[in-house]
Amino acid sequence: MTETKQKSGVVQKLMQLAGVVREPRTIPSHLMQAFIRIWRTKGGSWYGIGYLLTFVYLEVRMLAEDFTEADGFFDFLINQIPELLFRWFTESIMNMVTAFMWPYKLIELLGVAIGVMILIGIHYAFELLLRPAAESRFPELKADRERKAAKKKEKEAYKQETKAHKHAQKKATKRSS
User: Fold this and answer.
1) What's the alpha-carbon Rg for the chain, to the nearest Å?
2) CB–CB of 66/80 below 8 Å?
């Protein structure tokens, strides 16, 4: 990524933050956009929803624990912020790793049979109920899925073409020997 693109991305994020500060009522829409962006980066499927929910839960729990350890709100802001920034960064990375493993954690918690059945149920519930609703509300999700499917189809066609070409070469080599 070029330095100009990085700067424009940072400037864009700062402008968004400034907009949120000026208009606090826009916080829910900004959060929804951030959640959708994260979900899309994790595949835009039921796994991505599980990742997102796990990550948000872990982050909220971490902030709540930090807040309850403080003597009050101002103590939290003044004394905890420097420590919080460094610790929060490392704990957020740990939360990301844990969130990536959410299916394993579910199976570990509930046992293999029940955990797998719940994962299968989540998959079908997502495909039949949540995906259509999400794609009707956020068309970019459908476009992402269709783009991925086209790319996969293109990749498969290339594999088949390469395989056929190798087979033809092999046949030609056998004839010439």
Assistant:
1) 24
2) yes
- Amino acid 9: pLDDT: 57
User: 71 in helix, strand or coil?
Assistant: coil
Contact 131, 48 (CB under 8 A): no
**DSSP 8-state class, residue 120:** H
Per-residue pLDDT at 100 exceeds 60: yes
Report the amino acid identity of residue 125.
A
Are 102 and 51 contacting, i.e. CB atoms less than 8 angstroms apart?
yes
Q: Whole-angstrom Cα distance, residue 129 to residue 125?
A: 6
DSSP annotation of 24: G
Would residue 88 be called left, alpha or beta, if left means φ above 0 and alpha means ψ between -120 and 50 degrees? Answer: alpha
Dump strand ranges (E) for the chain: none
Give the integer Cα–Cα distance in Å for 28 and 33: 9
Q: Whole-model pTM above 0.70? A: no
Give residue 157's identity as a one-letter amino acid code: A
3-state DSSP assignment of residue 111: coil
Q: How many angstroms separate the CA atoms of 154 and 147, rounded? A: 10
